[in-house]
Structures are given as structure tokens and as C-alpha cells.
Amino acid sequence: MCGGPTAWRDPGAEQPPIDLDHIGIATDEVARGLRELAGGLGATVIYGGHAPGCRYIVSRVGDAGAGMDLELLEPHPDGEQFLPAFLARRGCGPHHLSFLVRDLDPLLERVRAAGIEPAVQRTEDPLWREVFVRSADAAGIVVQLAQTTGGLRSDDAFAAARAEEWRGAAATQRQAWTNETGSWWEWPGPRAAETAFLVRVAFAARDLDRVERFYGDLLGGEVVERTAARLELRWPRGGTLRFAHAPDAREGVAQLELDRLPAGRDELEGARLVAAGEGA
Q1: Which of 31, 95, 116, 151 has the CA that lies 20 to 30 A from 104?
Q2: Which helix (H) or strand (E) segment is 230 a member of?
Q3: Which ranges in the chain are annotated with CATH 3.10.180.10?
């Protein structure tokens, strides 16, 4: 599956044990979504690359101090074909949540002890170890748990991306996460003057106790709010998930909530956009 961490710190005590890294949105055309992210929402492209079966680009919907990271991923003919199958079944829309983990093995033991068996496990490469939890075990969305020891990203990735913006189209050539020469995507055009901030990802969930055990107890989310109708969890870099109790609804992402959402912007590649504070 695609992607990688957007704000990898060097190994050591500064890295949180578990952190919500990004939400991934599946699309049949990244270029279209990237134009909306940059030109409509003022998002900053941080990096991109490709993995077996897909190509991806990660953008910061916010700034260095607030907001969340969002990954757009599209099918690529080489390798696994999980993404065309997802698009045929569900269409464009939220695909996965990615968590960056300091030590994967003990977390994997706790996940299995909780009765959850990962759907995919790739732990042979010491530079990039990952497992995937099925959407049925994670309130309607696939969850990626990943550990890396390669020092692939740094905390000033956002600042570096902003510093390259004056280059326009040439900026994309400096934003490939892999060791390739240049990047595969086209410049989406100038970033909007006003920046929107992705505040939280809102879900419909049938069982809040089960959600709290998985995302809170196992994945380390700090409880911000807990009532009979709602659960909100936050991770160290500010990534926030809110779950509304909906026993008869289809589980999964209901909407992305943004501060400073421009008028008329209500959708991003199948994901519903709403101003922060609006009901699901």
C-alpha cells in the first residue's frame, strides 16, 4: 500500500510512541485533487512518490503549527492492484489512516491480544515495517501502522516545501520523497492566498466503546471528549478523530472538518468537506 510518514523525526525519544500521520484519499486522478488542495484550500505539497500499485502525494492542509496531513493516491499499473478494486467498489473517497509507530512489534502483540488480526503484514525490511488493520476492525477505514528507522523525513519538511514555492512548476522537482530524480506529478498551480486548516476527521461509528479500545487504548489517542453520543481523540502532532454514535449507519468517514473553509468548497475527491463545528 502507498505512502510514508510525512513528519518523520530521527529515531529517539522525541518521536511519540504512536502518532496519527495522515489520512489517505483514493482517487482516479491525483492531479485533479491536487489542484483543489493547493488552489482551493491553500494546502502545501510536501512530497510524493510511488509504491507497488499506486502513486501518492502528501500535502499539509494547514501550516507548521496547525492542521493535518492528507495523502492523495491513484492507481499505478506496476505491482498490487488493491486501489482499482477499491475505486470500483467504493469510488473516490477516504481510503486509510496512517499511524507512525516507534516500536511496531509490541504494538502488534497488543493488537493481536485484543483479537484483531492484521490483514497485511510486511516487516522484513528494517527501514520500513508496516501492518494493515481491516476497516471492519477500525470503524470503517483501513489503518496502516508503520515503523521506519531510515530517518526519511524531518520536522522542517513543511518549511522546506514553502521555501520552494517561488519556483512554481520547478518546485515539484524538489519534492519527491524517494531517491528518484524529480517527481512524477505536475505543478498544480499557485497555492491559494488563504490557507484552510484540516481540524479533524469525523466518523460515523456503531460502537464507541469498541472505537475507544482500538484508537484510544491500543493506538494511544488522548480522549478530548467522551459522551454517550460522541468520542474525540487527539494525537501528539494534532491529528484528531471524532466519532459520532450511529448504531444503524454505515461506519466510516462522514466528513473532513476544516477551519477557514472557503465558500463553495464542499467536496474533495469523494470526501465531504464542512466548516469545523457543523454537524455530520
Answers
A1: 95
A2: strand 230-234
A3: 18-174, 197-275
DSSP-assigned beta bridge partners for residue 18: 101
| Residue pLDDT, tens place only, 104-138 | 999 999 999 999 999 999 888 888 899 999 999 99
The single-letter code of the amino acid at 17 is P
**Is residue 145 classed exposed, middle or buried when 0-12, 13-18 and 19+ CB atoms within 10 A define those classes?**
buried
**Is pTM, for the whole model, over 0.90?**
yes
What phi and psi values does residue 50 have, to the nearest 5 degrees? -145, 155
Joined together, the cell numbers standing for residue 123 give 516487516
Q: Where are the beta strands (DSSP E) in 27-119?
A: 44-51, 54-62, 67-75, 93-101
Residue for grid cell 486548516: 197
Closest CA to 65 of 162, 176, 174, 209: 162
First vs last Cα of the chain: how many Å apart?
29
DSSP code at position 44: E
Nearest to 43 by CA among 222, 185, 188, 166: 188
Give the residues across from 144 on adjacent strands: 98, 132
For domain 197-275, say whether CATH 3.10.180.10 is its number: yes
